[in-house]
Each structure stands twice: as structure tokens, then as C-alpha cells.
Amino acid sequence: MIAPEPLAASVRTEEDVLRYLRETVSATRLTLFLQCRPKFYFRYVLQLEKPKSAALHVGGSVHAALRAWNKARWRKAPLTTEQLRSEFLSAWENEDHAKVCWDGEEAKQRQMSWSLVETYLRETTVPPDEPPDAVEVPIEADLSPEGLPKLIGVLDLVQAGTIVDYKTSATTPNSEKAAHLNEIQVSSYAVLYREATGKLETGTEVHTLVKLKTPKLVVTPMGPVSGGQKARLFHLIESYVTGIERQDWIPSPGLQCAVCEYFDECRLWQ
After folding, report:
1. Which fold, 134-237?
2. For 66-85, how does the pLDDT look when each residue is reduced to its tens digit (9 = 90+)?
3. Closest residue by Cα to residue 159 from 183, 124, 198
4. 195: buried, middle or exposed (CB in 10 Å: 19+, 13-18, 0-12)?
5. Contact (CB, 8 A) for 225 and 187
6. Contacting residues for 106 by C-beta, under 8 A, at least 6 apart
7. Helical residues (DSSP H) of the chain, grouped into ranges
């Protein structure tokens, strides 16, 4: 299932949820709010669960395998191929696995997903014998001095001061477009990193595993986040808070609606 964001036990009513969403913000939540406000409302306010797509399951399983690989490097206890595949299969066969609509292609999707992991290990620019600075670290940044909510997030990987984010994609990313499409997430991670370390990141990178017949890894380096990017992020967060306060769930109809899991609910909007 596409599970809503876990909320504290004290968050019970819609009013409680709206208060929580105003007081904290994540890159994922902010991005969805800016893309489609009704979708944000259905997922985060009403907490409507929907079946998980095969693409999301693939991405999650690959991500879990790479997390295990990075944690092993951090512990200086490298995993064997067999151990890594075991970690991958454990993530693949999680509780959501049986609810995914595979259309008879689960075995094919699983093999392709493992091929992505093998491709990353073969083509990665990350030195396998160099321990990371951090792996899957949850961080918070208090933005109240800016009049903004608390920013929360989890960094996939920090390697030699460079923030690395993992993606899977069906198409090869264009470097300029990738930098634009991932700016909210990368800028958020930079703010979180600076809050946690008191230092400027060395750089930021998006590592995209492309699901082709012959998979490949595309690394998009973007350098440290600029002052302009940080200011833009803060303006977007301000828009997010204002929209939630106004309960602005007005639809943004477009081609993206054809594949939205909340299409039926959105059609009933008044």
C-alpha cells in the first residue's frame, strides 16, 4: 500500500492533522503539495491508503539493498553478494508485496530490480572501501527564526561531505532537468545537513538507476546549494503553510491525472 505518513498517537482529528502538517514539513510533502493539492489532501489529511505501484515497490527494494551496502561500509564489515541479495529479497517480500498489482510480471520485475543493484555496485563513483559520513540519518532543522515550520528528513547517504540521493527511473535523466526537478529535495537535505553539522556540504548528487534492458547508473552532480536556492526553498515552504492554513485543496487538472491513484476521489471535488 501507499501508506500515509505516520503520525503521533495524539494526532487524531482532522484539525490535529492540519496542525501537525503546519508545524512540520518534509521535502516529499512539500513537493506533493506544490504538484497537486487535492492529492496531498487525500494522502496526508484524510490518510487514504492506495495500492502500491510496482515502480514504487521496485524503488523501495533497491533503496533497501543500497542502504544495507552503505551501512556495511560504515561498519567496515562489507556484505557478500549472497548477504546483499538476502537483504534485497527481504525488502522485496515485505508486507506490501502481495498487494502490488504485478500483472503477471513479478519475477521479471524482481530480476530487473536486482540487476539495478548489481549495476550500482559495478558503476558507482562511491569508493567501496571508504566509510560514509552518514547513512539513512533522520534530521530536524528548526526554521522558526524564519517564521517557518520544522523541516524534517532522512539523508540517504553522505559521502566525504557530499549529500547523495538515490532514484530509480524508466528513462535516462537530462542533467539540467534533473537538477531542477530535484531541487526541493536537494535543498532541503542541504539545510538539514548544515543544521546537523554546522558545516557547508561539499556538494550534492542524485544517483539515478535507469531501468533499461541494460540498466545504467547516471550521476548528476549539482554542487553545494546556493543562497538563492535556499531562499527559494523557504518561499515554497511559506506557500505550503499558507495553503494548509487556508485549506486550499483546489485541483490542478493535467496529463498527470491519468495515472493518479486518487483520480476517482478528485472527480467528486466540489
Report:
1. Lambda Exonuclease; Chain A (3.90.320)
2. 999 999 999 999 889 999 99
3. 124
4. middle
5. yes
6. 100
7. 14-23, 27-35, 37-40, 54-75, 81-92, 106-123, 175-181, 183-197, 227-245, 263-267
* The three cell numbers locating residue 101: 498489482
DSSP type of residue 173: P
Signed CA dihedral, 75, 80, 85, 86: sign only? negative
Contact by Cβ (8 Å): 141, 191:
yes
Could you tell me what percent of the chain has a pLDDT over 70?
96
Calculate the CA dihedral of residues 129, 134, 136, 139 and round it to 10 degrees.
-170
pTM exceeds cut of 0.85: yes
Q: How far, in Å, CA of 134 to CA of 219, rounded?
A: 19
| Exposed / middle / buried, residue 104 (Cβ in 10 Å: 0-12, 13-18, 19+) | exposed
What is the pLDDT at residue 142? Answer: 97
Angle made by CA atoms 228, 163, 229, in degrees to the nearest 5: 10
So where are the chain's domains? Answer: 134-237
Specify which residues 162 forms β-bridges with. 159, 203
Percentage of the chain with pLDDT > 90?
82
